[in-house]
Design goal:
- With 419 residues, the chain is α+β, with helices and mostly antiparallel strands.
- The chain has four domains: 93 residues, conserved putative lor/sdh protein from methanococcus maripaludis s2 fold, CATH 2.40.420.20; 82 residues, Beta Barrel (Elongation Factor Tu (Ef-tu), domain 3), CATH 2.40.30.170; 63 residues, Beta Barrel (OB fold (Dihydrolipoamide Acetyltransferase, E2P)), CATH 2.40.50; 124 residues.
- The chain has four helices and 25 strands.
- The strands form six sheets. It has a seven-stranded antiparallel β-sheet with strand order 4-18-15-16-17-14-5, with no helix packed on it. A four-stranded mixed β-sheet has the order 1-25-21-20, with no helix packed on it. It has a four-stranded antiparallel β-sheet with strand order 3-19-23-22, with no helix packed on it.
- The longest helix is centred in the first third of the chain and has 61 residues.
Length: 419
């Protein structure tokens, strides 16, 4: 029996028509995307909202603007060496103090008892060592006396023996008396070397022990002074002359050992501290010079220290005044100045501006001759200062560049300047 043959789905007219329409749409979309790819992204900005700078030859002045703060050159901190209860306050913040002047006193009963106990044990140890030292000296004297006595006995017995030898030869002295004198003389002659050797050995031992004893005594005396000085630390004194600051202490307060009590600003003058942009980190070194404006006059300064640690995109530089310290400077006073980084030299220059913060100097927006639009262009820049940028490539003399802030320009290739 015959049966109908079904046409495949992909050969049906509706399917073929729909596929053809879809293919046409995709082709048109590809063509449109290709055509649009050549169109540059742009943003419209009123011309009055931007600042333009002209590229032109000139002299590059290599410096950086600084705003240093006057800081005391030497600040001495006061800490509680022992601590305790504040007994008496003898100076207040703001007072001018002299070196060694008492500032406040503490009461510390526990420390006083501990010092007395340590002092007693140290004195006992010192007494024992001194007693032993005296014993060594007494032994030395006794040994010398013993040797001297033996020598005296030998001399005395020799004289006696000489007299008795003559009498014995004539029969006036008995044999016993003759032998007694000679026996005693022989005995003393034998023990004299032994006594001499003993004295030498004990003297050598004494000489070896004396430096050790003296060293131990010196250590004990030093420890005794340190122990007694703990009580002196209950009185806080000014280590240097200057102005006392940051001390707000009342009698009766308890302050622990090592706790900060205040500080003294020494009367040694001021230094300047400035924060410099991290871009100049590898160009600022100790010894470089600059100047600050104080009371309408330029005062020369010199870099003394560079802290390489970068915080908030800046690093700290310390300056010292060249010559005499200027008068009228106050702690925390801000000054205007500039730090010289190199010599002046001819260059192609562009005015510095906020655009550097966004581009880093890698690209700029260059206007056309009519000033109606500005296009992105890659450039190379060299040194920069607060006022100038050295152009190394990508720009020609006479071209104009947008130097104001580039916020919103990061993803566009063209800025249309409207009137």
């Amino acid at each position: 029996m015959d049966r109908p043959i079904r046409q495949p789905l992909w050969r049906r007219r509706r399917v073929v028509t729909a596929a053809g329409v879809a293919a046409a749409v995709l082709a048109l979309g590809a063509v449109g995307a290709f055509a649009l790819s050549g169109v540059r992204s742009a943003v419209r900005v009123p011309a009055a909202n931007v600042t333009l700078g002209t590229v032109q030859p000139g002299t590059f002045h290599d410096f950086v603007v600084i705003r240093p703060l006057a800081q005391p050159k030497d600040v001495i901190y006061l800490d509680a060496l022992e601590g305790g209860q504040v007994q008496q306050v003898l100076a207040q913040a703001g007072d001018m103090v002299k070196a060694g002047q008492p500032l406040l006193t503490f009461r510390n009963t526990e420390l006083e008892l501990d010092v007395l106990d340590r002092e007693g044990r140290l004195v006992e140890s010192i007494t024992q060592l001194q007693t032993y030292e005296k014993q060594l000296e007494d032994a030395r004297v006794a040994n010398e006396k013993a040797e001297a006595q033996i020598q005296y006995d030998i001399t005395r017995l020799q004289r006696t023996a000489q007299r008795r030898d003559g009498l014995a030869a004539q029969g006036y002295v008995s044999r016993d008396l003759y032998e007694q004198v000679h026996d005693e003389l022989d005995h003393n002659r034998k023990i004299l070397p032994l006594q001499t050797q003993t004295n030498a050995e004990q003297e050598a031992l004494r000489k070896r022990q004396l430096p050790q004893i003296e060293s131990e005594l010196a250590t004990l005396h030093e420890s005794l002074q340190v122990t007694r000085a703990k009580l002196q630390n209950l009185t806080v004194r000014a280590p240097v002359a200057g102005r006392l600051t940051d001390m707000d202490i009342k009698p009766g307060e308890i302050r622990n050992r090592g706790q900060r009590l205040g500080q003294i600003v020494a009367d040694t003058g001021f230094k300047l501290q400035a924060q410099v942009d991290e871009y100049y980190l590898d160009r600022v070194h100790p010894g470089e010079t600059g100047s600050v404006t104080l009371d309408g006059r330029e005062v020369p300064v010199r870099v003394t220290r560079v802290d390489p640690q970068v915080k908030n995109a800046t690093f700290q530089v310390d300056f010292a005044f060249e010559g005499a310290m200027p008068h009228g400077l106050l702690p925390g006073q801000a000054l205007e100045g500039r730090l010289t980084l190199g010599g002046d030299r001819p260059a192609l220059l562009l005015p510095a501006g906020p655009f550097l913060d966004r581009t880093g100097g890698d690209w700029v927006m260059v206007t056309n001759a009519a000033g109606t639009q500005a296009d992105r262009r890659r450039v190379r820049i060299g040194r920069r200062s607060a006022e100038q940028v050295e152009v190394l490539g990508g720009l020609r003399p006479g071209e104009r560049v947008i130097t104001s802030d580039y916020s919103g320009f990061e993803k566009v290739d063209r800025v249309v300047l409207t009137r």
